[in-house]
Amino acid sequence: xxxxxxxxxxxxxxxxxxxxxxxxxxxxxxxxxxxxxxxxxxxxxxxxxxxxxxxxxxxxxxxxxxxxxxxxxxxxxxxxxxxxxxxxxxxxxxxxxxxxxxxxxxxxxxxxxxxxxxxxxxxxxxxxxxxxxxxxxxx
Length: 139
Fold this sequence. Notes:
By secondary structure, the protein is mainly alpha-helical. The chain has helices at residues 5-18, 27-34, 38-50, 75-83, 96-101, 103-118, 125-138; strands at 54-57, 63-66. The protein has one domain (5-138): Winged helix-like DNA-binding domain superfamily/Winged helix DNA-binding domain (Arc Repressor Mutant, subunit A), CATH 1.10.10. It contains 7 helices and 2 strands; from the N terminus they run αααββαααα. It is elongated.
């Protein structure tokens, strides 16, 4: 399973902002930190703002910051929202007979998706941000 670049950037933006909770961070600063196109980041920030994770402020001293406590952000929720859901069979349109024969496969993959979602939900955005800061401090 591979996430889209959009999802990857969404997670990076959230972690970056969680590591700077009291600061207004510009898209340019995030772009330079991760070497990501500002155009891509504008789309990501717009999505995260519409999804209720970020607040933004225009003008001098403006930027973006988390609108929610990082402890309350579950990464699986962000991943599912950014990916538009997780469907390992990509909306497999098969006949009723074939679907019956593949019921075991569908059940197995549904179980795998549920297990996957539980893993990132065992850590909050705050946990991930703190782990990143600890690694940076040791470097």
